[in-house]
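quick one: nickel (II) ion bound model?
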Amino acid sequence: MPVKSLITLPDPRLRQVAAPIDQFNATLAELMQDMTDTMIAGPGGVGLAAPQIGESVRAVVVDCSRSQRPCRNHGLLYLINPEITALSEGEALGREGCMSVPEWVGMVPRARRITVNYQSMDGQRLSLSTAGFEARVIQHEVDHLNGKLFIDRVVSVHDLVRRMDT
Ligand code: NI
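yep, here:
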């Protein structure tokens, strides 16, 4: 179960739109396990998208139970071909970092509540509604599949600061 090396800015692969997954097989299971191992190895990792380890496909792992901040969450989630279908009207500002943008953290507006449609590892179509920090993490990870990073979403450059702990 190897921990993969992380792609970081300014690698152009972070800016690609990832391809949908249509093969629900052992290769996918291996990818999801590698992503999970890489997320756990990373500092403060609560989510990872496949493009961050160089695989330009629409797969995300999220585990907000790993957060130091207590929050309601659904534990370890494997989201294949995720699509956010309902965004709440209200947005909240929250602090985000990213293992692919190691030197910066920023205050990013995100929908407070979302519904995400996705497929499980065996291709089953599922839907999940969530709010708060977990909704934020899912929005951040789905952005990666569209070549978007949190630094693109800060309202002003003043919302971006150098990470002090690295
Ligand atoms: Ni990220």
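Strands lie at 47-49, 59-63, 76-87, 91-96, 104-111, 113-119, 125-131, 160-162.
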